[in-house]
Amino acid sequence: MVSRNRATDVATTRRTVQKAALAVAVVFLLVGILGFIPGVTTHYSTMTFAGHHSDAKLLGLFQVSVLHNIVHLLFGVAGIAMARTASAARLYLIGGGAIYLVLWLYGLVVGQDSTANFVPLNSADDWLHLVLGLGMIALGLLTTRRTADRV
């Protein structure tokens, strides 16, 4: 017979979802900072504030602009703030994942040379957004699953 303490299970779940949200937030902050570092970001001198004309690429792969980097920084700050409670951390992961799935679809629909590509996004960004969106949603759901009490 296994005895489980529901209060302990809930506390452990809270810590897990909060740690996951905090880890994701720190990665966003790191990416936002790295986007402003020449060398880590190739073609740094071509970076524009916004728009598809920016040829700057984080790690030589992901197209970035000043706006794109700022969005990453803000997403990181929001994640740190929301990691303070389990419910907010869950919302950050699931809601943020949904936002990234919408951004993935937006990137697929909007042409890379279109003026609507104001973030800017390239194919590498699009597929990263798919993985990121699915991963964040999975983290939000899996770290807050309720386990059935065993009798």
Query: Which band does the percent of strand residues land in?
Result: under 5%
Major sheet characteristics = 3 strands, antiparallel
Count up the domains.
1
Low-confidence sequence ranges: 147-151
Distance between the first and last residues' Cα: 7 Å
Sequence of secondary-structure elements: HEEEHHH
Radius of gyration: 18 Å
Report the average pLDDT across residues. 86
| DSSP, total strands | 3
How many helices? The count is 4
Provide the helix percentage.
55-70%
Q: Which structural class is indicated by helix and strand composition?
A: mainly alpha
- Using the alpha-carbon principal axes, give the shape: globular
Spatial strand order of the main sheet: 1-2-3
Structure, explained:
The chain is mainly α. The protein contains 4 helices and 3 strands. Strands 1-2-3 form a 3-stranded antiparallel beta sheet. A hairpin with a 3-residue loop joins β2 and β3. α3 runs antiparallel to α4. The chain is globular. The C terminus is likely disordered.
Provide a short characterization of the protein structure.
The chain is mostly helical and 151 residues long. The protein is 60% helix and 4% strand.
Secondary structure layout plus pairing:
Elements: H1 6-34, E1 41-42, E2 57-58, E3 62-63, H2 66-82, H3 86-109, H4 123-142
Antiparallel strand pairs: 1-2, 2-3
